[in-house]
Amino acid sequence: MKRSIFIFLFLVTIEGYAQFAPVPSFFRTQRAMPLVSLNTTSTINVSDYGAVVNDGNDDLIAINNALDAAKNIATAQNPVRLVFESGTYDIMYSGSFTHAIELRDVNGLLWDGQNAEFLIHNPTVGFLALLRCENTILQDFSIDHATLPFSQGIVTNINLVDGYFEFQLDDFSPVPTTASFMNAPQRWGMFKNSKGGIKEGTKNLIPHNQFFELIGTRTYRYGAQNANTLQNAAVGDYFVHIGRYNGSTLIRNNEGKNVTYMNITGYASASGGFNSRNCEEWNVINCHIKLKEGRVHSVNADAMHTNGNFIGPWVENCSFEGFSDDFMNIKYARRAIKTIHSSTEITVQSPVNVGEKMEFYNPRDGVLIGTATITNVVAQGGNLFRLTLSEAVNITTINPEDDQLADKAYLESRSNESFIFRNNIVRNSRRYGILIQSKYALIENNLFQNLSGAGIRIENGVDWTEGFRAHEIEIRNNRFENCGYDKNYIEEGNSAAISVDFAKVATPCTPNGGFCGTETTNYRAHSNIRIIDNTILYNKRGMYLKNIEGLTLDNNFICHREEDITLQSGQMPEDEVILNSTNVSNVPSQIATPDANIQFILNEPPSAMQIVNSGTNQDVGLQINTSGGTITQGHVDGDIGYSFNINTNNNGDISFINTSNSSPFPGPLQGAARTYSFWVKPSQEIFQTFMFSGTGSEDGEILAIQMQSNRRVRVTDTRGNFVRMDDLPLDIGQWNHIAITIPENNTLFTTQMYKNGVASEEYHQGEDVFVKTGSSALRFFPNYTGVASDIRYFDYKLCGSQIESVYNDRQITLSVKDELSTADNTIKVYPTMASNTIYFDKEVHTIRIVNLLGKTLISKNKVRLKELDISSLSSGLYLIRINDHQTTKFFKN
Q1: Contact indicator for 190, 176 with CB cutoff of 8 Å
Q2: Which of 151, 249, 726, 881 could tie 848 with a disulfide, CB 3.0–4.6 Å?
Q3: pLDDT at residue number 745
Q4: What does the pLDDT read at residue 819?
Q5: What is the CATH architecture of 829-892?
Q6: CB distance 795 to 776 below 8 Å
Q7: Residue 491: helix, strand or coil by DSSP?
Q8: Alpha carbon of 43 to those of 69, 84, 114, 608: distances in Å?
Q9: Is the dihedral of CA 425, 479, 231, 208 positive or negative?
């Protein structure tokens, strides 16, 4: 059945509290619910300090003065409300810090933005840095840049032979040769699609070089590119070039406790979005990293980066898109080992506390070399600290650079434990969704969609020397759709929608300040990983799971995407790969027929006054329209019994209506995902229209499903663009099951067509226009001659195995005789009125039980049974189909 992504919507006010699901019981360290209100006792208005919205003048001094005033009187017992007006505040910072505003050592502050916009005029700095703040809420504002930290344009020409491409900048875009780009510590480019994701099949990073050449009005040639860099790029793609300043995030939280961001939206950043380090109880609620209209890019680094927190973040009801690195990196803290005094005494860089636990790793051989608790700390000066360890550890290799080859010390007590990620959307972006190098996490009820790398990647960071092994990670009831399609994903050996592995440094390795690469180990470093009740619509591989001690897989629906572009010649898709893992429990998905939003089986007898909708959306009904054509309800078909006999010839149709007022039900609008399914038995080999939806004159605003006179089915708009099922023509005078799927916010050529549960290799003609269906009625069979049955509509895209399930769920005849046939091969079913069990006088091999709406409730194949448990059924009349040729009725008491 369709999996639900439960989004807990809540209203936050200053006086009110949000409702959150409980903290998981498996967390080692329990955490408080997110702080969502402060009972403030005083108010400071930034306008009283000279800040004026919408005047285009610098408001930075006034805001800092108001912040100082609030800080001076705020306490945990008497919090202060800092009030901004709705409008735009201009932030014109030119100093040397990473952020325009710094807020330190405040306890008890409610920053109330009241939908203000903060517009940063310096493309190299972030907005706000918090240090040692407690009991603080930031809420209700947005952040953008007046001068963007990225350039954006449309590719106009590609020359593979000479190694260059050309692009024309969008009007709002800065030119890529300005100082903020050329002086940036990190610079790279990306080919993108119009939704903000990496272009399928391209490299996810185009290294920066100096070969920008102005060749026309706001048009550049970017040279010195090799064929590998330009592979799969095309004219019409977007090219985005970033100038990245690490650390200059939208908001940074360091050493904070009980800090919450609520209802904050970021549109652009010189670095990442929301970052934290050494924090406890940090919450990000109803916040968003969004694409502004016309842009295909948002922030220049991770949307969230959380390193070495004592307690991980609580992130709920948020959305993130268009970023240029992973959505989230969540990591252990690391300490560089500077001196080995003995097996129990070392000196490290940066402070630690007595009682903290450390884990030590040899990255050359890929093995754990010990764990110990810190029993004594002596400050040595110069940010160096001499530690005494509770256990002897055989540390052998260190160097001044603490590069990839040196033994590593990780603070297990700062591993971002008790991390909660619920009810969020992560989509249309570069690389991974969440890169996990931490412990004790719940990732639940989220959507990961259109990411160029894995939706979730669990792997230590050997090259970056960050993060370590994962423990007690639960990934539950998430949806992964089209995660993994860039060139890097295609070429990686362990790529998957969910990928778990553990790595060591690749050999040979001579770092010299660069990366050596990684290779897998056989050390089962990760433990207690649970992946439960997820839907995974994957490219190449659903799950790659290696080096795990304690792995639980339970009821994950895994389906290969027919649109997958990642498979190489001769390569087959893989639902899951499990390697070098022990204590594995793997319970496969109980695949059930997905529930349609709207379903009309059309099996009513002629006398029925109502056509029954057996779908989940009971607000939709069916209306029969005839104006010269004929539509006969209760037609008796020899194969299935009652059905609709139709001869409309553009003089009638069957349409969906809203039952509340009989107005037309519009069906899917604009770029909504959709699946249509129906059974047809056409009586003539002529042009016919099965379905018509939409209105408008532009490309993609109208969709029709038609059978051409050569029996080929096509999906077309009104501008001559179409997708056609040439390889699976319909059968005249026989039942054909047709299913059409279209992904969310996608183009006509991503339409997938099926006949009788089999996917077509479609033929395309015209332009690959975006589907943007206009509001209109959803009409079936406006020009059709034949019999029809079982119309279903789903507001999401079904994958191949679900389509096959719908096909196999076709209606069983309701016109069976009450008495059984007396043929020799007849199987007697008894009793006809049963409570818990029905019996067969001969062995049966296939069984299907359906209710009178045609829904399959029990299905068994390749069995050898002489009795069947029916105790799970509700009381009522049922049909049972035996060995695919015999049907009878029974009544469940």
Answers
A1: no
A2: 881
A3: 74
A4: 34
A5: Sandwich (2.60)
A6: no
A7: helix
A8: 10, 11, 14, 67
A9: positive
Is 46 a residue whose pLDDT tops 60?
Answer: yes
Burial annotation 245-259 (CB, 10 A radius, 16+ → b, else e): bebbbbbbbebbbbb
Q: Which residue has the tokens 């609620």?
A: 285
Distance of CA 614 to the CA centre of its chain: 30
How many CA atoms lie within 13 Å of 127's alpha carbon, on the beta-carbon side?
28
65 C-beta neighbours (distance < 10 Å), count:
16
Q: Name the strands in the sheet holding 333-335, side by side, starting at the edge strand that comes first in the sequence.
A: 333-335, 408-411, 357-362, 367-381, 384-389, 345-349, 337-342
For the chain, the farthest-separated pair of C-alpha atoms sits apart, in whole angstroms, at: 97
**Which of helix, strand or coil describes residue 371?**
strand
Residue 383 has pLDDT above 50, yes or no: yes
The pLDDT score that the predictor gives to residue 820 is: 34
Q: Return d(Cα 222, Cα 232) in angstroms, integer.
A: 16
Give exposure, 135-166, as e/b (b: 16+ Cβ within 10 Å): bbbbbbbbbbbeebbbbbbbbbebeeeebbbb
Output the pLDDT for position 242.
97
pLDDT above 60: residue 788: yes
Asked if residues 636 and 644 have their Cβ atoms less than 8 Å apart, the reply is no
What pLDDT band is residue 267 in, cutting at 50, 70 and 90? very high
CATH 3.30.1330.40 fits 42-147+247-330, yes or no: no
Residue type, position 834, single letter? A
Euclidean distance between CA atoms 443 and 426, whole angstroms: 12
Main-chain phi, psi angles of 272, to 5 degrees: -95, -165
pLDDT confidence bin for 515, thresholds 50/70/90:
confident
Average per-residue pLDDT for the chain: 91
The DSSP output letter for 57 is S
Nearest to 260 by CA among 303, 305, 327, 316: 316
d(CA 445, CA 480): 11
Ordered by start, the domain boundaries in the chain are 42-147+247-330, 153-244, 333-414, 431-587, 602-812, 829-892
pLDDT at residue 822 is higher than 80: no
Minimum mean pLDDT among 271-275, 693-697, 837-841: which range?
693-697
Residue 852 confidence (pLDDT): 64
Question: Domain 333-414 carries which CATH code?
Answer: 2.40.10.170
More confident residue, 478 or 835: 478
CA neighbours closer than 13 Å in the CB half-sphere of residue 574: 16
For residue 854, the model assigns a pLDDT of: 64
pTM score of the predicted model? 0.82
Confidence of residue 161 (pLDDT cuts 50, 70, 90): very high
What pLDDT is recorded for position 591?
A: 66
Report the 10 Å Cβ neighbour count for 738.
22
Q: Which helix (H) or strand (E) holds 193?
A: none
CA angle 610, 616, 618 (to 5 degrees): 40
* Contact by Cβ (8 Å): 883, 845: yes
Can you tell me the mean pLDDT for 547-556?
A: 97
Q: Does domain 602-812 have CATH number 2.60.120.200?
A: yes
Q: Which pLDDT score is estimated for 63? A: 98
Q: What is the rounded CA–CA span in Å between residue 35 and residue 53?
A: 29
Distance CA 699, CA 770 (A): 7
